[in-house]
Amino acid sequence: MQPYLSFETDRLILRPSNLDDAAFQLELMNTPKWLDYIGGRDIKTIEDAETYIKEKIISQFERVGFGNYVAIRKEDGMKIGACGLYDRPELEGVDIGFAFLPEYEHSGYGVESARRIKSAAIEDFGITSLKAITIERNVGSQRLLEKIGLKFEKYIRLPNDAEELMLYFGDFSDENEANWNGTSNSSPIYNAGRWGILPDERVSEYTADGGVQSYSEVERRIQEDVLGDYAKHGYGRFAVEEKSTGELIGFSGLKYLEDIDEVDLGYRFISST
Questions:
Q1: Do residues 66 and 121 lie in contact, with contact meaning Cβ atoms separated by under 8 Å?
Q2: Which of 99, 142, 224, 232 is the most exposed place for a label (fewest CB within 10 A)?
Q3: The CATH number fitting domain 188-269, selected from 3.40.630.30, 3.40.50.11310, 3.40.50.1860, 3.40.50.1240
């Protein structure tokens, strides 16, 4: 699996799920609340869990660069739950979800992880809105979604699902635009908002692309070029930050050039630096 982003909170490490998590995934997906609130996925063996991780989780990371993150407690290294961003074919847009083992519920881990993954969605992946789905009797999930800024929008039914679901929605475009203006302090490898170097005319004068002038264009380039290179080749471009300030000042890295079948080492820095 390629080196996708991981995240941290005060108490948790949130890292991309992988095949080593099969036993944990099997346990989590067969807890009473998962079966009641999310539904059975016929995951009965380690092999079933491995197939699920390959086909549902790893495949999404390869396609869009984000997905399901295992929540690992820092104090003892225990895998206690999962939280993630999901790009489902049956639901337009990206939705956020979470689940924890019963013994780790009611300790604030759910909202702690969801807030961090929401921040990652906005700051690192340039996602301007999030959805979430839950069922009416899952009051705890509803309260958590409200705590991170999502609001109930309407009842829906997904294809091939008879149960009515509650759809929650949050528009975070204001927060996203704040990142574009340079106010975010997040890790910038995939951060469209902080690649403000691209519109710098004194930089684009010496490049073939002419620079960009809109957030959406930066977002498209990062999704297609930066994430695309990591997904295809396992390497790509890295952001360069000034240690003393955390300010993004440029980027450097490797890019595969298909037309000449060579790997190019390149760099760009904000002209003022």
A1: yes
A2: 224
A3: 3.40.630.30
Instruction: For residue 15, give Cα distances in angstroms to 3, 4, 21, 114, 252.
Output: 10, 8, 11, 13, 24
What tokens were used for 90? 């049956």
| DSSP letter for each residue of 84-125 | EEE--TTSSS-EEEEEE-GGGTTSSHHHHHHHHHHHHHHHTT
Contact of 248 with 194, CB cutoff 8 Å: yes
Alpha carbons 28 and 16: distance in angstroms, whole number: 16
Residues of the chain with CATH 3.40.630.30: 7-174, 188-269
Distance in angstroms (rounded) separating the CA atoms of residues 32 and 127? 32
Quick one: which of 247, 187, 195 has its CA closest to 4? 187
| pLDDT tens string 2-49 | 579 999 999 999 999 999 999 999 999 999 999 999 988 889 999 999
Fold of 7-174: Aminopeptidase (3.40.630)
The predicted-structure confidence for 247-256, as pLDDT tens digits, reads as follows 677 788 888 8
| Residue 112 reports pLDDT greater than 90 | yes
Task: Give tens-digit pLDDT for 63-103.
Answer: 999 999 999 999 999 999 999 999 998 899 999 999 999 99
| CA distance linking residue 90 with residue 191, whole number of Å | 27
Give me the helices (H) in the chain, please: 22-28, 32-33, 46-52, 59-64, 109-123, 139-147, 173-180, 201-204, 215-221, 227-233
